[in-house]
Design brief:
The chain is mostly helical and 221 residues long. It contains five helices and two strands; from the N terminus they run αααβαβα.
């Protein structure tokens, strides 16, 4: 007949893992259950270690007596036979069984507690999801503002390039130049980041050249 420890193991090995229940920082409503589970697992380990030590002591005594008996019979009928040594493991065995049964009872009750507390936990998860969405919205707003700040100097730099020797297209009114616009990041990057990330066009982009000038360049080519 299987003992309490074996029944727990058969039900699921996860019940013997200290990480069966989530840590408090991930799920505060189950913090008390996690602490109790860890405590009971430690009690089982301690009781098992005590019982194992006594059993090893008994095995060593048995081996020593077996060797003594062997030597006694080799030495003849006049040799004294060694007395048996019995290590009492009954109390340690009782403590181990009790610890395992306590763990089993706790696990059965804890599963009921998890189901009862699930609505509370899900409500907290929804609050955390809403907070995350708010963070993403704020991040998108900040990125859009950063894109605008990064794009504005590009148009002005393109206008200056016509006067400092970088462009040889002649003077032009600043107001007729197209404003540099952000370029959307690839969809894959959006999915990885979880928000709409944008870049800006490089200085010297064709958006800083008017349509008429582009047509003239193409005709010249």
């Amino acid at each position: 007949m299987a003992g309490a420890y074996e029944r727990v193991l058969i039900a699921s090995q996860a019940f013997l893992d200290p990480g069966w229940l989530p840590p408090p920082e991930d799920c505060e409503p189950l913090a008390d259950l996690r602490a109790e589970h860890v405590r009971l697992l430690a009690s089982v380990r301690e009781a098992r270690a005590e019982l194992s030590g006594l059993r090893q002591e008994q095995d060593a005594a048995n081996a020593e007596r077996a060797a003594a008996l062997h030597n006694a019979y080799l030495n003849g009928p006049s040799a004294a036979l060694p007395a048996a040594v019995v290590v009492d493991t009954s109390e340690a065995n009782e403590r181990y069984d009790a610890a395992c049964e306590a763990l089993e009872a706790f696990i059965n009750d804890a599963q009921l507690q998890i189901a009862e507390r699930a609505p509370q936990i899900r409500a907290a998860l929804r609050d955390r999801s809403l907070a995350a969405d708010e963070k993403r919205a704020e991040a998108r707003r900040l990125l859009a503002e950063a894109d605008r700040l990064a794009a504005e100097p590009i148009t002005l730099d393109g206008w200056l390039a016509r006067y400092d020797g970088r462009y040889h297209l002649g003077p032009i009114a600043y107001g007729v130049l197209d404003q540099a616009m952000p370029v959307e990041a690839p969809e894959m990057f959006k999915e990885i980041a979880g928000l709409t990330s944008r870049g800006v066009i490089e200085i010297g982009d064709d958006n800083l050249i008017t349509d008429e000038e582009m047509e003239a360049i193409n005709n010249a080519a």
